[in-house]
User: Fold this.
Amino acid sequence: MPGLKQAEAVSQRIIANIKKVIIGKDGAVELAAVALLAGGHALIEDVPGVGKTMLARSLARSTGCSFKRIQFTPDLLPSDITGVFIYNQRTGAFEFRPGPVLAQIVLADEINRATSKTQSALLESMEERQVTVEGVTHPTPQPFMVMATENPIEYEGTFPLPEAQLDRFTLRITLGYPSPEQEVAILDQQQLAHPIDSLQPVTTPQEVIEAQEAARQVYVDQLIKQYVVSIADATRKAEDVSLGVSPRASLHLFRAAQALALVRGRDYVLPDDVKELAPAVLSHRLLVSPQARIRGGDARQVLVNVLAGVPVPGTRAKGWVPTR
Assistant:
């Protein structure tokens, strides 16, 4: 399909461009591209200094999308995110001054440092692609993506993200420390200047929108859809889980699998795509039971156990015909 081939080329250009800045984290870069093509949002969770902000900035630069950064702090107000109406003395009317959330790619830096009230200012925009201020609705630009960062280690002065907020993030990305060889390469790379300063767009926002539309045309067999739903249902019944994932999580896993298949040059989804993406898409949505936490279990380990108990459909599922 020509549209899918063009979309694959767009995704590969974006990934290759981001890798000029983010060294040795190919998996994380691919997940960022998957979240973008799936039309979703990404939560980047890791310790300070490993490149969380740079990943978001590189994605925005590579796509040519408008970019706004919001530094979340305890005194940040919801209106600082959504925008406000300002009285214009010359016209005698109130004019809307849009907030940073009305950009195409929004970086919510250290999102858990703001209060829950301020965090909730993102809920409407992330799900409904619009912002309502003083009863007036303003649509977000397209494409639209929120990339939020948080430090999972430091808890002092932070406010945990509520489940409703976490459920709106398509997937969670972790970067981790580079290897010694990769860290030397980073030193060499930034000896004179940061590569982000010279990074140029390799696509346009319109091409990104077309790639998102193409991703939704990727074929998903009925058995693979049932596999997605079976995984979600298993999390709701698992002994070590207090709260399983929502139907929105099933849809996000479905969309992410389509995007991953597109990025990897296929016009059909494999069960392995679903299984590979499940930890990134589902683990941040699970509430692990107190008993499991006492035993040292976490959401990712619980999810590994859940996946092990769900039968994987055969690759040559009924009705699946490869077209490449």
Observations:
- Confidence is low (pLDDT under 50) at residues 315-320.
- Residues 218-318 form a domain with the Helicase, Ruva Protein; domain 3 fold (CATH 1.10.8.80).
- Residues 2-18 form the longest helix (17 residues).
